[in-house]
Design brief:
Elements (H helix, E strand, L loop, with lengths): L1 H14 L3 H36 L4 H42 L4 H13 L3 H14 L4 H13 L3 H14 L12
């Protein structure tokens, strides 16, 4: 009975999102918005560069295009610096939160996602593996983890996670030899 109550309590604690986890998820969404804005600015800069290349020889028009390009570049650099700072703050905050509550699924998810965005898959992998243990029925997580493991040349666990995903989608007959 005690074991049952302990397991139930652990499940309840795991399911309840922490305040730190909620804040980290909100911060991650803000970060993704900033990254999208950076991409949009880059697209605008490329469109202006194309206009400058294919436009007329009108010197006044070229000056306007060049001024707009410089303005976009300045905005891009400022937003890029702010975005990098936000990313570093988010990673630090999530790491500190995980020192206090190492099983916080939301913080693990946010830190893993931030590391993937930051092109640090080797740092994201341990968090996703811990998260998969906390959320064993999450097929989408199994797919993400399997892809990441495959990219890191960890083929056996990748195969197991990809098979888990396929089974969850009703493709069991396509899995010839799968661990677990």
């Amino acid at each position: 009975m005690n074991l049952f109550l302990s397991a139930l309590l652990a499940l309840a604690l795991q399911a309840a999102p922490s305040e730190a986890g909620r804040k980290a998820k909100t911060d991650l969404e803000g970060l993704k918005t900033s990254i999208k804005s950076l991409m949009d600015l880059r697209d605008q800069q490329q469109a202006l560069a194309e206009q400058a290349r294919t436009g007329s020889e009108d010197e006044e028009r070229l000056k306007k295009v060049a001024a707009k390009h410089q303005e976009l570049q300045k905005t891009f650099l400022e937003l890029r610096e702010k975005t990098i700072k936000s990313m570093e703050d988010l990673l630090e905050s999530a790491s500190k939160g995980l020192e206090k509550t190492p099983g916080d699924a939301d913080l693990l998810e946010v830190r893993a996602e931030a590391n993937l965005i930051y092109k640090a898959p080797e740092k994201a992998l341990p968090d996703l593996e811990k998260l998969a243990k906390l959320r064993p029925e999450d097929a989408d997580l199994a797919l993400k983890l399997g892809r990441l493991q495959h990219s890191q040349n960890r083929y056996e666990p990748a195969g197991a996670n990809l098979a888990k995903y396929l089974r969850s989608r009703g493709f069991s007959s396509f899995i010839k030899h799968s661990p677990s």
